[in-house]
Specification:
about 350 residues; 4 domains; mainly alpha; two-stranded antiparallel sheet; about 60% helix
Amino acid sequence: MCTIRQAKEALTIYQEKKSAGEPILKALRLWPVVNVFWKVENLEPEEAVSFDCLHALHDSLFGHHLLEELKILLSKLPRKYAVQLEEQLAAFPSWQGLAHFNGILHVSYADGNKLRDLVQQTFYTALNILTNNVSREGYQLLWMLCSYLELDSLIGLDVHIDKTLELIEREQLVFGSELKEYVSHVANGELAEHLKMDWNFPKVHLWKHVVWDIQNKGAAHNYSTWPNEKMHGSLKDAYQDCSNGKDVAVQVLRVDHHHLAMKLIRNQVDAEANRTQQDCNDDDIDGRGDEDVLMSFSEHVKLGSPQSPKSIQSIIRDHASQQEFQGFHQKFTWFVNQCLPIYLNCDQNSWKNISFAKTF
């Protein structure tokens, strides 16, 4: 992981002398281009990027790779095996919150939530079909799916301790071993020209960073894109039912709930921008003018923070002599879990409680 400062320094060296800058950029795994995120004050993009189970696992590693391998394997086996798998999939017991499927071979899903449910059901319905005698590659693929599900379950826990993080790291090694075994079976089998042998793509490596994310940012549900997935349906309905397919953005905003949401967001941005501008005018931060602190993009929107991020630990340390800051992490935890849902008009029952350690 590199910082913006490292990237800027490397680019400066490259611009002055290409031969001197190339090895530095290569070591940092960067291209010699200016990053637009450099305009945002006190931001470190690589620290901000977090592991997202929905798109890195369900919609990608399984949906675009493991599932496709399974479809190819079944298409190369006698038809009876594919029929049996789909019959067993259709007979899978119903469960609240679990999507039900009748087919797998000729259906594609764009919803990562459905793919999350599908991988759980597919694994169990394929256990008595893809045996070692029927398909060595298919049998090994099930071993990969087994490790995948273990990791998905561990990463998805709402609370983590040292033991669970250790289990994640241990299971990642297991998945890597099963993947190598699968590639070996494919290379030595009859389906080498049909199945994937090169698994060197970004999202198969991403979960190697998940333990760092959990240690520094909390449980994975804190930075999941899963909640926003439910908005896709309403946006699709607005497009199909409330527009003619042209100038869509303007027409979609005429839908009442979307218009209200956008209006609220705009008002909040305007108010925050005005407050920040006033603060900068009243008190020149660190001796710099406000034009050095915030990057202006229009009359009412500014990106950046006038102050560098501070940890809870540093706040407690800086105000150790002040009585009102005693037990600050406990007070802050109470505020986030009790007051914030009310301010945001959220359902208290659906709010996931967040805890902050004193050494956060």
